[in-house]
Amino acid sequence: MGKPSAPRALPDNEAIAIARNLRVSPQKLNLLAQLIRGKKVATALADLEFSRKRISLDVRKCLQSAIANAENNHDLDVDDLIVAQAFVGKALVMKRFHARARGRGARILKPFANITIVVREVAAAKA
């Protein structure tokens, strides 16, 4: 006797993956989210593979996780997937101090961010 499980928040043709506490500022992570948003997953993976940004490895891993969730948990066709949503949120911020001249200190902020990637299966265009 427990409470009934919550209904699924996403439609049947979508799958989600979340990467939490990535050691990068949300502003920098959002540049990569903009890069892949709305693209087919094969194109998005290729863009992340050859991106020069350090955090693109973690974003690529999150996208691969969303693709695996779609394939294994929801029986979606990998070839018809697009990146429907990719959005970034703030996580914790570590505060540090750096010694400066005349006995002063300067504050150093070390931000963390989360990224959420939603992939959606679209009907293949009949050509």
Automatic annotation (TrEMBL):
Pfam families: Ribosomal_L22 (PF00237). InterPro entries: Ribosomal_uL22 (IPR001063), Ribosomal_uL22_bac/chlpt-type (IPR005727), Ribosomal_uL22_bac/org-type (IPR047867), Ribosomal_uL22_CS (IPR018260), Ribosomal_uL22_sf (IPR036394). CDD domains: Ribosomal_L22. Keywords: Ribonucleoprotein, Ribosomal protein, RNA-binding, rRNA-binding. GO terms for molecular function: rRNA binding; structural constituent of ribosome. PROSITE patterns: RIBOSOMAL_L22. Coiled coil: none annotated. The keyword Ribonucleoprotein applies. Part of the 50S ribosomal subunit. This is Large ribosomal subunit protein uL22. It comes from Bosea lathyri.
